[in-house]
Amino acid sequence: MLIIPAIDLKEGKCVRLEQGLMEKATIYSEDPATTAKHWEAQGAELLHVVDLDGAFAAGPKTWTPVKSIP
Q1: Is residue 20, in this structure, part of any structural domain at all?
Q2: What is the chain's percent helix, strand, coil content, to nearest 5?
Q3: Side-chain half-sphere of 68: how many Cα atoms within 13 Å?
Q4: DSSP assignment of 31-46, as one string?
Q5: Is residue 1 part of a domain?
Q6: What H or E segment, with its residue span, contains residue 6?
Q7: Residue 11: which of 65, 70, 67 has the closest Cα?
Q8: What H or E segment, with its residue span, contains residue 63?
Q9: Which of the four pLDDT bands, split at 50, 70 and 90, describes residue 46?
């Protein structure tokens, strides 16, 4: 089985939404690159990155934090 962790980005921060509501976001990390490195250290070979700002705006928004992920 291949488990692929996900990082959801909102305003450049790693978050989880409650019931898919942007106004109910819990911040888990301020640093997406460090979070990605954590998953890599845990053995993840792939990472699913979600640009929530872009998803809600119907176009890419969060390029700078995505580019910081090695």
Answers
A1: yes
A2: 30, 35, 35
A3: 16
A4: -HHHHHHHHHHTT-S-
A5: no
A6: strand 6-10
A7: 65
A8: helix 63-67
A9: very high
Interatomic CA distance for residues 56 and 59, integer angstroms: 8
Q: How many domains does the chain have?
A: 1
Which residues on neighbouring strands pair with residue 51, listed in sequence order?
9
Phi, psi of 25 (to 5 degrees): -95, 135
Instruction: List the one residue out of 18, 22, 26 whose CA is nearest residue 51.
Output: 22
- Domain with 56, as residue range(s), is 6-67
Provide the whole-model pTM: 0.82
Q: What's the pLDDT at 16?
A: 96
Dist. CA 43–CA 63, nearest whole Å: 25
Distance (Å) of CA 26 to CA 8, 19, 30: 11, 11, 11
Residue type at position 1: M
